[in-house]
Amino acid sequence: NMDLEDDTTVLTTLKSFNSFISHTEPPQRLSEQSAGIGNLQSQYKRSMELLEAADRVRSKNRYLQLDQEKKQMELSHKRARFELEKTASDSARDLEHEVDRNQDLLGRIKKLEERETGAAKNLSEQVEANRALRKNLESLNKKLEEQDTKVNTANQTISSLKDEIRELKQKIQNQSSTISTQSLENQELQEQLDLQRRKYQEVSQLCQSFQAAQSSCSEHIIKIKELERRLALQEQDVAIVESVKSEVAKVPDLEKELKRLREDNAFLRESRENCSLLKEEVEGLRRKLERMAKTKEELVNMELEKEVKKPEDLSREVIQIQQREIALKEQNYTLNSRVRSVERSQSELRAELSQQRSKTLEEQKKREAQDSLVRRLQKRVLLLTKERDGMRAILESYDTELAPTEYSPQLSKRLREAEDVLQKTQNHNAEMEVRVLTHMHKLCVHIFFRQKIEDLEAERQRLEEQNNILEMRLERHNLQGDYDPVKTRVLHLKMNPTTVAKQQRQQEVEALREEVTRLRELVRSLQDGGALVHSQDDSSMHTPNLGLSLPPSKEVLDLRKQMESSELRNQRLKEVFQRKIQEFRTVCYVLTGYQMDITTENQYRLTSVYAEHMDDSLLFKKGSNGSMQLMETEFSKTLGEMVALHLHHQKSIPAFLSAVTLDLFSRQTTI
Amino acid sequence: MTSTLKGITLKGSAELVAEFFSFGINSILYQRGIYPPETFTRVTHYDMSLQLTTDSKLKNYLTNVVTQLKEWLFECTVQKLVLVITCLETNEVLERWQFDIECDKSAKESSAPREKSIKTIQDEIRSVIRQITATVTFLPLLETPCSFDLLIYTDKDLAVPEKWEISGPQIIDQSEEVRLRSFTTSIHKVNSMVAYKRTDSV
């Protein structure tokens, strides 16, 4: 843009210059003649101006060119700088790459160096191993040589020993020969020994017989002594017997005395008892007497007092007594109030006491917490002081060792020391942490186990209770007779009293049942047999069922026949009687005109043949003396006159009845 | 039985226990009135007076049972002896006299007699029988005709003898149980107990 602008400015200035020049020419033509002198001056001015303008333009141009050059230079500068920067960054990058590569290479170098050192170590180790092996080899070689020498010496010893063996064998042979001679001697000695033994046995037998004789002698002596002793004892016994006899003679006298004494004793005891009783009575009476005397005195006093006392005195006394009472009551009240106040104060004090106790407990707890805090802080302080001491030591060491000697190895040494201390503290820390953890773990385990123990205890108690309940149940079942079919079996005899009794019962029941059925049949047959009197065949048919109960004899048949005939007769008589009665009644009715019915015992109802209504009837009752009396009926009420006349007046029932008949007849015929 | 033997052998113990059962069962039958009192006669044993039955069938039955029991006591295979009283009308079990037997099996191996005086054993048996007689006072009355049976609980692997058969335990429905005294011969221990049917009080 700058170039373009520069170019445009250049162009514009050129244009302007050209224009200016062109402008100057026309005015020259116009004003050439008019102003020849003036034109020269003006021309001169103009040319000067033009020159100046041209200078100006030239300078501007130059300026512009310079400007452009400058800009170009700036541009090129910038570009150069840019490129330089690029190259710089590139070189920096390259540098970094180189540095990294350098470091990598350094690292590789280090590793290689380490490997080298390691290899060198290995090599040295191998060399040492080699040396050690060589030493081993040498030692083994030495050992081999030693063993060879040993073998040689052993061989030598073997040969020497073989020589010795030969010599020993010779010695053995010599000794065996000596042994044989000595055995012969031994045999001879043994024979002598046997002889001696036999002699010894004989002597011992003699000794024994001698001893036996001695023992029998001693036994005899003992027997003699015993017999002498017994004799002495018997003499003593005799003496004792004599004394006892004399004493026995005294016995009856003693018995009599004893009786007498016993009686005296009993009597004395009774008298003593009586005495004691009498004493008690006396005491009682004395006391009574005293009491009586007292009461008497009191009575006397009272009487005296009564005499002395007047109503005023009495009232005074009463007042005194009342005053006393009041005083006592006041005392009572004061005492009660005091008691209450004391109780109140006591309860207050108790409350205070409980408060104070709780406070003290709280204070104690606080104190304990504070103590624990103090302890923790003290521990911390200790740790810190230790740290400080360590640091101080380090610093001191720094200070002391700073001046004369080198710096860096000291630093590295101190660094190492500090690192060591740090490591130690870290280890210590780790240990403490581990310890704390283990403690916590143990606590947890502890608590866990305690919990488990409590649970197990509860479980155990529950199981114990269950066990008790089950044992009780088991005991109950055992008492009731329960058993385990796997281990136990219940047996009984086949022929046992219960089964026998049951069988008997069953048989009885069966027998009873049979009898019952049989009796029922019999009863039924009896009932049926009574009805069938006529046919003998039927009765003979029945006899097998009746069995033994009825005699199937002729008597029965005769009796049956008789019964039947008498029944027939009865029947006929009944019929005849019935007929006759009926005849008689109808005749009566026809002849007398009255139908007579017996309604109840001793009551006769008469209905007239000419009765106007069906219900019209006369009722007669037979009295106890035999006389007939007329009872009142509806119909008889209508016959009052005739009743009065014939029955009351004439005292004739037949007349009355006839009158009634005639009256009814007359009434009928008129209609 | 006054024996002059010193010490108790297995055989002797079995005999003592069998004898106890013989007298004890007779006592119970008499006390409970299973058989009429006139069929019993008085004897003296264990220093006390006891009742023994004269009914030949009953005697025969008891002898059979006691003989077999003695054998089983000697072999230590018997566990219980039970006297069951059944009502004949309703076939219900009314009473159960149960005797548990514990046998010391070590006496089978060693034949050395045990130190226990016969007198002590007899005293113990006497107190048991006395107690049985005393318990009758609180047992409910047996008003209906009853019969009895003897059950023996044995080990399962035992061979069932001829004339014997397997039975049920005949347990009482709704029972009250009372534990009585026990006695021991130092080889066999016998525990007694009685169970009776609860009577619903009216």
Automatic annotation (TrEMBL), chain A:
Compositionally biased tracts (Basic and acidic residues): 359-369
Subcellular location: Chromosome, Centromere, Kinetochore; Cytoplasm, Cytoskeleton, Microtubule organizing center, Centrosome; Cytoplasm, Cytoskeleton, Spindle pole; Nucleus envelope
Pfam families to which the protein is assigned, alphabetical: MAD (PF05557)
InterPro entries for the chain: Mad1
Gene3D superfamilies recorded: 1.20.5.170, 3.30.457.60, 6.10.250.90
Coiled-coil portions: 95-305, 415-529
Chain segments carrying region Disordered: 347-369, 531-552
Single GO BP term: mitotic spindle assembly checkpoint signaling
Protein keywords: Acetylation, Cell cycle, Cell division, Centromere, Chromosome, Coiled coil, Cytoplasm, Cytoskeleton, Isopeptide bond, Kinetochore, Mitosis, Nucleus, Phosphoprotein, Ubl conjugation
GO CC annotation: centrosome; kinetochore; MAD1 complex; mitotic spindle; mitotic spindle assembly checkpoint MAD1-MAD2 complex; nuclear envelope; spindle pole
Protein purpose: Component of the spindle-assembly checkpoint that prevents the onset of anaphase until all chromosomes are properly aligned at the metaphase plate. Forms a heterotetrameric complex with the closed conformation form of MAD2L1 (C-MAD2) at unattached kinetochores during prometaphase, recruits an open conformation of MAD2L1 (O-MAD2) and promotes the conversion of O-MAD2 to C-MAD2, which ensures mitotic checkpoint signaling.
PANTHER family in the cross-refs: MITOTIC SPINDLE ASSEMBLY CHECKPOINT PROTEIN MAD1 (PTHR23168:SF0), MITOTIC SPINDLE ASSEMBLY CHECKPOINT PROTEIN MAD1 MITOTIC ARREST DEFICIENT-LIKE PROTEIN 1 (PTHR23168)
Family in the record: Belongs to the MAD1 family.
Name recorded for this polypeptide: Mitotic spindle assembly checkpoint protein MAD1
Underlying gene: mad1l1
From TrEMBL, chain B:
Localization terms from the record: Nucleus
Main location: nucleus
Domain HORMA: 11-194
GO cellular component term of the entry, any: kinetochore
UniProt keyword list: Cell cycle, Cell division, Mitosis, Nucleus
InterPro entries attached to this UniProt entry: HORMA_dom, HORMA_dom_sf, Mad2-like
GO aspect biological process, one term: cell division
UniProt keyword Cell cycle, yes or no: yes
Top-rank taxon, per record: Eukaryota
Record bears the keyword Cell division: yes
Family membership: Belongs to the MAD2 family.
Name of the protein this chain belongs to: Mitotic spindle assembly checkpoint protein MAD2A
The organism of origin for this protein: Dicentrarchus labrax
